[in-house]
Amino acid sequence: MEASKRLLATANRILAQEGVLDAFGHASLRDPADASRFILSRSLAPELVTQEDILAFDLMSQPIGPTDTPLYSERVIHGAIYRARPDVMAICHHHAPPLLPFCLADLKLRVVTQLGATIGKQVPVWDQRDEFGATNHLVVREDEAVSLARCLGPHSIVLMKRHGATVVGSTIEQLTFRSIYSCRDAELQLRALTYGAVDSFSDAEIDAASRYSQATLSRAWEYWNSRLAATPSH
Ligand code: MN
User: 74 CA distance to ligand 1 centroid (A)?
Assistant: First the structure.
C-alpha cells in the first residue's frame, strides 16, 4: 500500500506539473491488493499531494475508517467507474483548459497525432443536464456518478459538458500518459483549426497507433519524473 501511495502521489504531481490538474481535479489508483478499494488524496491541490495525504476508500467512495479531514466532493466519480469497469486501475478527473473547448463548443475531439491515439476511437460526451436538470455542474451524487460511468462505457475518456473530462487507464503510467497526451492532441487540434479544416486519424490508424509498448510508457514516465525532480519541492 505504501508503494501504491507513493506512486499515486508522484502521478498527482506530474499531472499538475504537466498542466492537466491545477488547484482542482484528482487522480486515484485501485488498490492492487484489493480490487474493492481505491486510494485518493484528501482534499488538496494535486501539486501538493504527498503519500501521507492519500487515503483508502471503498467502491461507494466512502473512506475506510473514520476521518475528519475534508475529502474531494467529486470522489463518487472514482467509485462508480471502478464498480462499472473491472479493467480500470486508475482514474483522473480534470478541467484542463485544452480539453474545455471540446466540452463547450460543438467540436469533436479527434486523434490528430500518433501519441494522441491514446484517446481512442470514440470519446463519449456526458451532459449532466440531460438526466439531472439544473445542477451546480459538480458530480457529487451517486446517481450522477453512475450516469457518468454509464456514458463512459468501454471507452478511455468521457468529456463532461461545461465541466471537464474523466480519463481511465489500466495502470497509473498509462493513465498519466493518456491524460497528458489527450490534452496535447486537443491543443494541436485547436491550433490547427485556425488554419482551416483539420485532418485526423482513421479508426484503423488509431488501432495501429495506440498499441504503445511498455518501453514507450516507461520512457515518458521517466521523463516526467526527471522534470519533477528538477522542480524545487514545496
Ligand atoms: Mn470537476
Answer: 7
